[in-house]
Protein 1
Amino acid sequence: MTESSEAKRYIIKGLTENGNKFRPSDWAERMCGNLCSFRNRRMIYSPLLRPAVIDGVKCVIVDSELSTKHPNLFNQIIDFARKNHLQLLDEAKALP
């Protein structure tokens, strides 16, 4: 694996391929809860799987390292995005 592929991240946008907003509104937090931890009664999201808001749209940032450390979870997340027709982007192409 090359250095550039290790640093690769994907963005799952909370918009369908048709541009409709995905529901429920807390889908990103639910998805990222699969890998979170708790410290002092606070939820701490993993850097491998974390929610974000980009241009006012809820998203999930998925680090490609997740596919190595937790391959089943990575596959479930990508399958979820595809089955729900969510926009799945390479971060390098999605952000300026």
Protein 2
Amino acid sequence: MTLATITTYLHSFALVLIYLLIFAIFARAAASWFIRDGGGSVMRFLFDVTEPVLAPLRRFMPSAMGIDFSPMVAIVVLYLLGQLLA
């Protein structure tokens, strides 16, 4: 296995992780509109996966009128990062 092959695999793996994280953030935001009990296993998984990305954004962005814009900002930033890697 050459270095170029390993680099290609790592690049593809990073892109897949970025797009899976975008999907998880979107799923968490959409589920929050319909699911009020966050104690389910799917919601706990989405919380555990997305909170390390969303929590730092919330520190810098206060919610406006009770609306949390951090998922939208995180999706845009991750999408741009994915485009830079592509």
Protein 3
Amino acid sequence: MICVSLGRTRHSAFLEGHKLLAEKKAELVELRVDWMRKRPDIGRLLTDRPTPVVVTCRRREDKGLWKGTEEQRQTLLREAIIAGAEYVDIEEDIAPSIPRYGDTKRIVSYHNFDETPDDLEKIYGRMTKCDPDIIKIVTMANSPLDNVRLLQLAKNADVPTVAFCMGEMGLPSRVLCARTGAPFTYAGFSREREMAPGQLTYEEMRYLYRFDRITEKTKVFGVLGDPIAHSLSPLLHNTAFRKQKFDGVYLPLRVPADVFEATLKAFDDLGIDGYSVTIPHKQAAIEFADQPDIQADLIGASNTLFRKEGAWQATNTDYDAIIETLTAAISDERTSGPVLKDKRVLILGAGGVARAAACAMQQQGASVVVSNRTKARAKELAEEIGCLTVPWENRGAEKLDVLINCTSVGMQPNVNESPYEQHWLHESMVVFDTVYTPENTLLMKHAKERGCRTASGIEMFVRQAARQFELFTDSEAPREYMTETLRRYLSAAR
């Protein structure tokens, strides 16, 4: 079950918001009465309530907004109990002062907005002595490993326990607490009214991550990176899971580079079955894998880790996605055989995607040239791959058949930038921009105006994700649906 936190400054706004959540099928609503400007009228808020409620009045030391005295605050909590609220949230230290009465269930809570303390078990032990119906422990995740500690605590709990981490790194525990038997998790009314750091919205929790459908049998996957909040992989994979009726959930996993290996080992306890891998972990993923495949070894980087027969396999789905995307752009009724053989290809950039593109083009028999704003990185990549380089300032002097942009130039918000001048383009070129936010970058616009054939970043992104989906699920990916989903999202986000 999802408990939606609702905070408003006026009684009428509280009642309106509560009604709206009920219409959206919310099953439990937390009334954060500490948000109110005037003294809350508990009776008015609870009379004819459209859903069960948790009444919470959070004090300022726990990042709440309560401005009255502590005596007044505790009086409000007692009023909520007498009025028959389904749940009342009581901090651990005041639990002895709030006696049990009627059918109201007691949520005894502990919040730590600074860290996940080392003595979690000791804290939990104290809370079990506070006459709880539910124990709630919420801490700040300063490491992805904190998720594992909280979820293990909840899994082994004797009392029904809601335990998860706050912050961007804490998102996995907000979702995966469903697998520990937690009676519910918390979500926000909207992105603009976030009640705690890293809190997901009700729509995200219900429709994107499908919290209420997660069980111990649900397969878990995720995308590893730092940063990771911008990633659209969770949108793409979770909607594909739903389309194919696959019992899985896919999470954004922010993992700093210095704890990459330790995190993946700890995440074994969470039963994660596969990862997409992005910056800065693509090379570390190769080292972590038990069995990297030929493509990953060739590129020296992996964007996919998946379990097979108990071992971690590594591959790079960018490789095939790049070839397929370019082949589709070049091929027509007049072409036959290898369409990239002997083509002169200029690759802009020297990161992970550029590395995959250079290897893919070389294996297809193309003549590869790399150019990067940092000359040393271009030289390093060229030496590893065995191709040529051209200085960034001279990139327009190359005679090309294919241009592949693997830089971030032109990506939102810098949509008025292009890594390649329009007058350098000619109609016989194929232009492939791996940027997909937006899909129609300035480079793509210029290429179309000059009569070039084009290939977009969306095409590549969907192809590499679809291949990951197939490795994760052993089933065919709904590629057209994934493309439609991504384009619809990007269009709405403009």
